[in-house]
Specification:
Blueprint: E1 6-7, E2 10-11, H1 12-23, H2 27-36, E3 44-48, H3 54-62, E4 67-72, H4 75-82, E5 91-94, E6 106-112, H5 120-133, E7 134-145, H6 151-167, H7 172-185, H8 192-202, E8 206-213, E9 216-222
Parallel strand pairs: 3-4, 3-6, 4-5, 6-7
Antiparallel strand pairs: 1-2, 7-9, 8-9
The protein binds S-adenosylmethionine (SAM).
S-adenosylmethionine binds next to helix 3.
Length: 223
């Protein structure tokens, strides 16, 4: 769900919280599983591409004592996040994740449904930078959208995704718009195995994929 357009009379950021679970039906379990892979008592947590702060809120509740920094490139998405009372105390930063990140080292670098917005080369750079900036034992927790290994599998995923979005109540024009957006984005999407390899190359000694559902997966690298 990207762009400056409007969906049924409201901007994409305004529609986001209502629509994301309809567009990504596995989103609640994906984010919950991401939290299950946090290390014990992290002190410094950096979230990349926080959007309207859905994961940020879950992180705040899971780690009430950590210093939480959340960055996003879209000021309108950030403004919605920053206005949420439960996110008081989070350090929000307007910025591009391809630029230098705030702070020195973190215990956790976490991101949801965001890295597919940057190119394959930039995603590799993000993995390398995360490996450099995480403390030993730190975790890079990436929940994202991937493409299938084979064309027939991609077709099957698309068919089941269309059905799942309709079941969750996404409007027909939104469903077709999302399918078109995925098709256009396809050259920039990676497979899960490609991303696992980049994390290993970047220096993550252990890489696990604890959750997959259709085109969505959680990949966790441990320093
Ligand atoms: C689909 S939303 C996901 C938001 C949030 N993480 C969630 O799970 O609901 C993708 C977010 O990534 C942000 N984004 C895309 N490219 C970015 C970049 N280069 N740097 C920082 N944020 C970016 C967008 O502005 C948007 O808020």
């Amino acid at each position: 769900m990207k762009g400056q357009g409007r969906i049924h009379g409201v901007t994409v950021p305004e529609a986001y919280d209502h629509l994301i679970g309809r567009i990504v039906p596995s989103q609640p379990l994906l984010l919950q599983t991401a939290l299950d892979y946090l290390p014990p008592s992290p002190e410094l947590v950096l979230e990349l591409g926080c959007g309207t702060g859905i994961l940020t809120g879950l992180l705040r509740a899971a780690c009430p004592d950590c210093a939480l920094t959340a960055l996003d490139i879209d000021p309108e998405m950030l403004a919605i996040a920053a206005a949420k009372p439960e996110l008081k105390g989070v350090r929000f930063i307007a910025g591009d994740l391809r630029d230098p990140w705030p702070g020195e080292c973190s215990d956790v670098i976490i991101t949801a449904l965001c890295l597919h917005h940057v190119s394959l080369a930039e995603r590799s750079e993000v993995a390398e930078r995360a490996a450099r900036l995480l403390r030993p034992g730190g975790r890079f927790i990436c929940a994202d959208i991937f493409r299938a290994e084979q064309e027939w599998e991609e077709d099957l995923l698309t068919e089941s995704w269309r059905r799942a979005m309709a079941r969750e109540g996404a409007p027909g024009d939104v469903i077709e718009g999302m399918i078109l957006q995925r098709a256009n984005r396809m050259p920039h999407l990676s497979t899960v195995s490609w991303f696992q390899d980049r994390l290993r190359e970047a220096g993550f000694s252990r890489v696990v994929v604890p959750f997959t559902a259709g085109f969505v997966a959680l990949v966790v690298g441990i320093r």
